[in-house]
Amino acid sequence: MAAAIVIKDLRKSYGEVEAVRGISFDVSEGEVFALLGPNGAGKTTTVEICEGFRERSAGHVSVLGHDPAKGERSLKSRMGVVLQTTGVDVYLTVAETIELYQQAYPKPRRLDEVIELVGLQEKRNTRVGKLSGGQVRRLDVGVALAGDPELLFLDEPTTGFDPAARRGAWDVIRNLKALGKTILLTTHYMDEAQNLADDVAIIARGEIVARGTPATLGGRDTAATVVRFRLPEGAGELPDSLKSIATATEGGVQIATEDPTRALHELTGWALQRGVQIDALEVTRPSLEDVYLEITGGEAGAEQA
Ligand code: ATP
Questions:
Q1: Helix 94-102 and helix 133-145: axis angle, to 10°?
Q2: Which of 1, 21, 44, 134 is most buried, by the most CB atoms less than 10 A from its CB?
Q3: What is the pTM of this model?
Q4: Which of 17, 18, 85, 153 to mutate to test the pocket of ligand 1 (most atoms within 8 A of CB)?
Q5: What is the pLDDT of residues 26-77, one digit of tens each?
């Protein structure tokens, strides 16, 4: 698969602050790539360098085969950008807003298609000032789609959304992927990356600290399974094979194992034989959130000093 974006050893400093410290990654054509990281990690800086809005301090960046720093018009017309803050005119209607942006592009996407893609058919003739926050964000995506770009940059597309609006926005992003668009999105929501992304890079303090698919990131696929449970009073001692790997926790007992089938069999076999009722039995694998918190040192939401 050809690469839509290639970044090699990218660096960016704002005076003394080293916001991006030598990151490298590729985004393949047609994939959804998520840059996941806490506030101040360097996500927006990286994305805005790709968009040509900020200058890099060092490194190589290629977007659709061009250097975005050159600000070529031909590149701009092939990409769509949704920034964190919106700048659409509150007095225009949804349709008028998209039409306004369509005029700037050589081959705009049809108005009806854009409105349908972002799910604003019922709000077509509503003024922007009367839309909800989630609807305005959808319109932002509509504006980014006006020129029918190959590549879309979505900077925290669902921050501040209620759960239903987030699901709606995810559907919009899935529709875009189905059309073959390449999407680079930033987010601090684990479930967003999990649900949408083909590839994820976790960025913290200006560096990529993990890279992979949502399923394999940080060794999730090979990490130990955790079995948790509570034993009633007088249940007696666990069998030796489990006793050696069990640890006492506040809520009961925990076993971390790479062979959960055997551990569960031994546990439930022992319990059935003794007529012991195991309470609150739970079998879990590390979630993307567990991996994220471990990798970023639990600094989700913390500003970089
Ligand atoms: P968020 O999730 O909060 O949007 P982010 O991961 O996108 O964060 P950036 O906005 O790229 O992070 O910021 C990275 C670091 O660079 C932060 O320490 C920030 O304060 C600093 N920074 C960003 N823009 C500027 C600027 N224009 N001038 C000076 N420092 C900046």
A1: 20
A2: 44
A3: 0.83
A4: 17
A5: 999 999 999 998 889 999 999 999 999 999 999 999 999 999 999 898 898 8
